[in-house]
Fold each of these.
Amino acid sequence: MITKFCKYIIYGLLILILIPIMPLNNIIYAQARGDTSSGITFKANATEFAKGGAYTMNLHLLNQDGDTIPTGSKITLSIPSDAVNYDALDVSDSNLTQLFDITVDKAAGQIIFTLKKDIVGQVDVNGNISGTIIGDEGKTYDVGSTFTSPDGSTKTIDNQSPQIKVIKEDPNPPAYGFINSFWGMGPNDPATFIGKNVPDIDNFATGNFSRTTDEFSNFTQINAAGNGYVLPDSQFYQYYFTVIAPDNVTEPIIDENSIVVTDETTGAIVDPSAYTIDRTTGKNQLSVSLKSPRNSNGAINGADQFRIAVKTHVLDSSIVYHSISTVYVKYDTGGQVKEYQFDLNDQFTQDGHSDMFPNMTVEDKTYHAGELTEENIKAKLLENITAQDTTDGDMAKDIQVDYGDLLDKANTIGNYVDQVTYRVVNSTGHVTHKTITVHITDKADGGVVTVKYVDTDNKPIAGVDTETLNGKVGDPYASKEKTIPGYQLIKTPDNAKGKFTDQAEEVVYQYQGALLFVDAPGTLDFGTHELSPKDETYLLENKDKDILVQDNRSLDANWEMRATLTKELTEKKTGKTLPNVLYYDNDDNQSSQMALNDPVVIKDVKTKSHDQINLSSNWIKDKKGLKLKVKTGTANIGSYSGDIRWDLYDTVAND
């Protein structure tokens, strides 16, 4: 019986994989311009400012499909440090910090934003930096902005606020009339007031307050010019303060314990015994009735000036509150002589961290026409929207989203401003909500994604087809690895999954080929012969299979086939053996005796192709390969059989 046995010796394998360098012209730097397609825009909340006023800078970065802004790119804002207080700059806006490392260089008068990761494809980022004007009144300061690529080249970006002009103002606050209302607790006590908002909202002056607390403050001056009415002891001032919020917002609470009444004529704080407080009309209203604290009978002369300051607590940091200050001149017996009213708006800045309100990060969204459906719209709108709270921690799961009629617009190209509102409420009832713009864009045909399957020589594997994937820009694609007989996957490409862009792309799977022992003879038949009285050589007459080897490894790999006689030819009935009769003749006519259990090299090969090699194809035709050389007198009549083992070795070439 002749049998087959496969054996491998495995040596360490060193692989060097070389991939082509991406041509520089495949990297497209986003143009530093401020048009509607892509670019970077800088603008401030105004061009004219009062000293001590708020200076809010907005950095808008818009990138489109096909454009890449590489890591290390820098945006530099050059703002004189004698114009803006660098020590109190707020650069904590998460829309910026998640993309940039931010350096504030007071000495150089610069704020530098260094990109932490590549920006690829459609991105629309808005971020704010807040500060306070400290420049000299009547002076104008230049503001510069540049974009620097990693290679050092610079471009001037779209600067819509190239100057800071500090205007001259009368002493703060100005007297608008008999009464004057402002923000803060007094001219020299801004409390959490940051600065006046530009522009006015609904034609009312609007003050911005820090989100560090849930309160804003207002003060009203009565007889601000000091040339007002002389009130006898039978008359008094009655001050009404009302804060109005939208119907769906929790009612503001005016804090009566915060009320401070100041006699501005003397600068003294008025003792509470000189005035009475009434808040029977609701939490968002109160009144203060006041007579002169300096005259025993309470009479007020024309030069008497008073200031009343009060704080209001609210639960929603994202809306505009309207405050109304009204002063009446009234009689003790009822009735009134005069009425004066002053209206202001109060709102919280959306910049910076708050320990009171939830901190929510949102971003404008861009979708292709038809991308949003009833099934996916909520999940898509909530992607990358986060909320953190000092007490409640991660509140992302608690964010509510109101997208209005966006589904009706999902197939219509356009920019839908303030289309989506996000809202989150923490355990103390404090609310943050923000709105975003949704951009619906058309889909373009994406570049073809070609999927290749190569060996370690970076050559296509025979019999394995290259595949192509097609889709629209922005659509996802997913390639697949293949199970290839005789090969093992050794490298899955980083871009096996991704999104179609407007550029063609290659996805390359690399495989390590194996050394395969494909087949070997099961029976080697030397024929039937008459017993001879002399020495005889018997050639192979028939074999049921050939010895087949296929090497799919790298070209110039080495392997070796060996044959070992594991059982001498033995007569079936008597058990008598014919020792030392099996020989192997190679293609060079060199003959080797195959002694029992002594392997003989049949073939030593350096791989030149990945085709199958037949080691025994010429044995019968050319009278090569295995032979039996039987000496006279050693054989008897009978049927002889033996066993041979074929060993395939992965070898290393000799130097």
Amino acid sequence: MRMKTILFAFCNLMIIQQAYADSDLLMTSDKPFVISYPDTPLPVEKTAAEELSKYINLSTGARTEIINESKLQKKDAADAYIGQCNYTKGQDFYVNKFKQEGFNIAVNNGRLFIYGDDSKGDAFSQSTRTGTLFGVYDFLEKELGIAWIWPGKSGEDVPAVKELHIKSFSRIDFPKYCIRSVMINEGAELKYWLKKMKLSWVPGAWFGHSWDSYVFKTGMDKEHPEWLALRNGERRKPHCCTANKEFRDYMVDRCLNSPGNKGKSIVSISPSDGYGFCECEKCHALDPQGTDYKTSIPNLSNRHWDYANYIAREVKKKNPDLNIGMFAYTAYAKPPTNIDKFEDNLYISFTFSAGYFVKPEMKEDIYKRIDEWKSKGIKIVGREYWGMHYWLELPYVFTAQIKDSMPYLYKRGLVAMYGEAHSNFATQGPVYYLVAHMMWDPETNADKVMERYYKAFGPASEYIRNYYDTFEKAIIENQGKIESFAYLGLINSWPEIFPEKTIAKAGEFLKKAEDAVKGNPVYEERVKCIGIGYEYTKVMIELLAVYRKLGRAGVPLWCFGYQGALAEASHYKLAEMPEAWKEFWSKHPDEPLDKSEKIKLLKRALELGNAREKIIYGQDGLPAISKGMYEYTLKTGMRPWHRTVKEELAKEGIKAE
């Protein structure tokens, strides 16, 4: 019996030893981990080795050493080979060609190999190909379980691992979209987070409003006033006459010869933002018969896409490798009826938001339009709005719509995706985290992505999930109260989208989260970031409701009443109020207040406006709520809500403080 016991124990020991022999890579805190990279590395290869070293040390506690390949005592002396090392090139699994920004991660014979499609340049630039660095972040995320839920140290979730044991494997991966960008322009740590999310804008592509660069800044509008849009009998900005052949030929020349287009593979011919489209006979002749020019957004696709197709065709004659890009946007968002097939060098930047898909009819309309565009042979780049200024930094969370739409859009042929966002990770964090992962692979398991996001809150993970779910469910339940997703319609709907009961319920989950993380400074700081977003939301929802009452009582608050519309039209020196504004305010007439109630509301608006500013400028370095858009409104005089309240109080002899 004793002999059987000894034999059984010996067999178990052999099984354990065999298990460790079969798993090829071992990291422990008591063993140095040597990382090697090429002798003349690209910046991305050196950075990738440094990032791997940093996070292995943080995760396992292992002491790491980074050594040039030629300084190794033996060619196989390193534990990890990063970039195009000579030793890597001699391995059976080695491949020397990748799709754009692709990488290979392999664990073989007890060693880790990571290399990929790289280019020269700053490793943290969005235009540099960084396949090796993406491979390192992919390894850290999938094998070490690390997550970066927002920029900066507070968003860095690094599980402690005493011993990491990884079996042999090889994984080649690459992004499914050639452009993947969450366009945030705020925060010193942002560029590092974008790379960790494997986001980039490698192709030289530009889709933005182009006429300012080509026409107005060059003075061509003064030299050729006949190129400008005809409005009420006058030629004026911001739009041009897209039917004017001389203007079209000038745009062809700018695509080919503008210094700003040098090195780009896709160059923009997009019209200016806003309204004020041409009313000349030539433009009208291209529009569909019966076009209603008095509606808020008339369908002017035929004229605009005839312009685009002409330019694409003429550019291709002179430079077959140059592609043309243009927004499918506002009055030219729909496919034209006068073009069956587009030139093969024309890309559209299709503007939409999955956030609109809370309304089933809007989702159906967008999907239908995408199919119609594809039937005409055009290449589609998705241009999203994930954290746009219409949201006012509020928690407009729509992860369910993202999970549903991203795989569908990819299957329908989108080739790239990018979108607006703000540095408001307290309110939009789950949206940004999810879209970043799904732009790399639109068919990834979205539920697992979100599970990892919430895991970063430790013992508060379920409470934070419930907190965001409260807002997301309220959006679905109250989508019928969103009058429209135009700016006027949306900002006048926020108090109904997030009623008091929603705010209170979310607050209960946040309190439970705060209690759950007490005593743990790492989790406390993350929950604190979410709390800043909650306080902002509470203040902003009440403030918008007060602005609405004041605006409809005659206070000239832009977007909240007819007097505000007049003030805005005057600020922009509009010859007449846009039809869309007239239509909106005819449905929402003034509702007078007596003087005492008006003063009371003005005082409350002042208090709430001050509280909003205090939150925006008092975030303790956390990326909770964006300052950028608020500061832009102050700088430009756009939507001067807080200033207007102070001015109205001053009229009543009340000093605003």
Amino acid sequence: MKRVTNWDADNFQGAYDAAAKNGTGVTFVVGSLNKKDTQDTLKNLEALKAKNPNMQIVFFDTDKIKDDPKYQGLRDWVQKNTNNDDLSFMAQYSVRPGEGGKPVGDKLISTHWGSDTTTLDEQQKYGKMYTEKFKGQFKIQEGQPEVTPQVKPSDKPSEKPAGPQNPQQAAIAEADKINQQAVSTDLDKVNAAIAEAQKAGEAGAKQLPELFAQQKKLQAMREAPARTRKEYAQKLYADAVALNGKTDKQSLEQQEANVLEAHRQINDANAKVPGYFATDAAKQELKAMGYSDKAIENLGRAPATGDKSKYWLSDNQYGVPEAEKQKMYDAGDSAALEAATREALEAAIADAKAKGVPLVIKYGLQGCPPCIAMDKQAMGPTSKDLTGKAVVANVDGPAAEMVLREHGYQLKAPNGFPFVDGFDVNASGNLTRGQNGHLEGKQLTVPTTQGLDASPTKTSIPQMVEGLRAERAARIEREKQASAEAAKQAQEAQQLIEAEMMKKLNEMMRINPYQFSGDGATTK
């Protein structure tokens, strides 16, 4: 191994420094020295290093880092990228100046499985190209020891986030960079090759182990956006469980926040890779996080909406029909009420998400006079007036608590019932209450000599919806601008790559004084 590199888990900052000095990328190699595949990889890298003396290679020995607590950060990175597979793994990164000009990992240039280094050699020019963009901006502390015993997120071979990230969030960010279209294309090719090899009988049998390994890797890449979010959710839930028994305000608030964020991550995972939670193993993982069978079932289906839903009350309003709800109240059947309320809310959330409009939820309570007044006087006409502007749900408050939590919102009733919340619903079905998305008290009903008057509802809810729509429009515009900026950066990066390729093509064609322009013509 020393013939290939001196950089390892203890001193890899030195590889960043050397790459910054020489204007190259850094190649990280993950494997076990006890495995033949890793030995073959190092042998091929030795030959590649002889051809490219400035090539910076870091070797992470999985046997060395597997138990020592100081390597926990590296183990997390290795697990997220390799799923702890036995095949050797290589990842090439360019280098950029971090805080104070310190060289740190920047763009992921390429990843490679197994011992073949041919494509790694071809991709080195891009690591060099991106690193050289920062020439003159690096500040390397000369004479400082090149040993980094504690691994920090910014030291790991991944792009430094704009804000603070824990290892799980960093893993999600890396997973989201995977070109899923390319993965799907490659997976189709591998599946086709497996089918052909199986048809070939004994002649194709020798190819199958490698093909199955490639298939496994591609499937892992396809599922990475969901898997990393699920693992983050599991970590959040475990941290919440660890706070059981704590009674101080800070611990209780942290516990609640962790549970809600865990649910949001699960919803995001389900949206990123539909069907990810369909396997028995995945369902058991969800059950370990407190998910009921019904909640798990809802992750795997799209509820009926509109008049196709059993809980469509009419006039743009979802809820449990009054007669059915009263029977449950009379029987004291809270489980049935919760199940019906779940169905009604799931349909309302799906409808609002599909239509791209806010969701308004009115919460009532059994035997609550103001709640009854709202239902009789205001909810029907108000819901009808909001058609096309918002979706409305009218539910029992306590029965709604669990399903709302599963969509990332903790229901609270600071001043009793009734009250109204207004939400933005994102693509994953997660709920975010608007800045002014809460109404209660005199905003909904007022006492008069003739009894309770719910006419304020007809004014306050539409006003709230206008505010929610404005907030949603502003959010979409921010996301649109961010997406445009990301697309611009990707285009600029592609142009640099294409320019480098055209330069190489011109060198190969030796066209002089004419230059190949790439559009089918030559120019002087």
Amino acid sequence: MLTDNIREQLGADGSVLMIMDACHSGTASRGMAICRGTEKVFSEPGYTFRGEPDKGNFDNDDESGIGNLAPMVTLSGSDQHEVNFEYYDKEKDTSYGSLSYAFSKAMMDVGPNTTYRVLFDRISINMSTLTPRQSPQICGEVDMEIFGGKTEAPEPYFRVTKFLNETNVMINGGNLMGIYDSTEVAFYPMDTKDPDDAQAVATGTIIHTSGINSRVLLDKAYDKETISYTRVYITNQNFGDNDIYVKIDLRNNLEMEEALIARISEMPKVKITDENPDLVVEMNNEFTRGSNHLQIITADEIVLYAGEIKSANTEKYIDSITETINSYLQVNLIKKLDIKDPRIKVTFEIIPVTYEWDEIEEYATVTSELDIKQFYNDGNKLEFPEGQVFMFKIKNDGYSRIYYQIIDIKPDNSLEILLPSTNVWDERLPSEFVVEKKDSVILHNDLYQFLPPYGHEYLKLIATRQPIDLRMIIQTRGAKIRGNSSPLEELFRTSYTQTRSEPIMVKPSQLTVQTISLIVVEKKE
């Protein structure tokens, strides 16, 4: 067996990672994405994914007769009964293996203490926005440090790799590091540790990116010696292609189709396409229920809108459709939000609990904390049954206090701010949601419960150095707020109200975003 031979040569002190970005089985519908490989199941007859430590070709050590093997972890692009879709980069007009791209992107943010489980969580989050219809899998020694702990932590800056001319240079950062065209950068002396305390040598704008490199147009001409020996920091980060692509399949209703196309043409971040759509607006086809039944469905086949066209008031239905599309656009941007300020070192975790309810005081008290490991499914993904109660733990490993907000993105693409609470009886201010330096908090008084809809859910912690408040922006859907707003608040507001097709920018030196990906399932009786 090939893998056993490799593991035997490496020995018990070695480490093997196998990545399988290949198609398993299943069928595609609506032609919504490009599939890879074959529809034949890529496994031995009768094989069932176990989600337990891999022993080499699904055999254990005793049966193979080989001892002293290097531990092994296997990453698969999809479940054995799913199609593995390609990730299509619309901006570059290029397709990639979805797992290969998500893995490469996740590896940009690992350090010597990062485990394969943490890496897999990041891969799952990346794939949720790339190819949401498939479920990546991991098996093996998932709690082992990547490559035996021999990876190096990424630097918070980039370097000039090539001097092209007096106004153009190449740097060692690209799409995989979250750098896209129009991102703004600044060049600092090589001994700079904190750009806020230093003077920039030069500034520039990214004009072309690839996976790991970018071309920078400098603000003016510089000689090679001045610009080459610098550290490059991002000052304003563009989030890349935030457009969404919509397929329109309205049959037997030409009037509504023409009206919808006209309205979408006024939405700068929404494009109409027949291939690789993010959303499908459909009516009177084989996927809708009955005559004149209209629905809007996502790439992972979540229905965002469904209803029967009962009147000739086309404008009313067009309003509902475009409002649903706009909401999806805004939530999709927040789902992709992934920013790390190296000075804000924060993590958060879910603690599942049991509780007792005081009927008189109408108050819940935690009675015990449950082991999170019991909630990992066979694919090593967090999976919670409806009704499970949980609380958060937030840890600040940095050297300054941080303020936080927690956002919940549900399977139906709806968005809710959990903390600070939107409940009228909760009078706590955003400034009260704070964790001091080198400290941690467990939020015993803020209990939550997993509820339908079922599917993939995302919890996002947004940590900043100054208190912010996103509640009013989301509740008013981006209506103008009084006073000065932070760049993050402006980002959220703009995602609702943007009227021009321009980059959405934010300063990465002001916040850190952490994400927990999980699955909510129906409770078993």
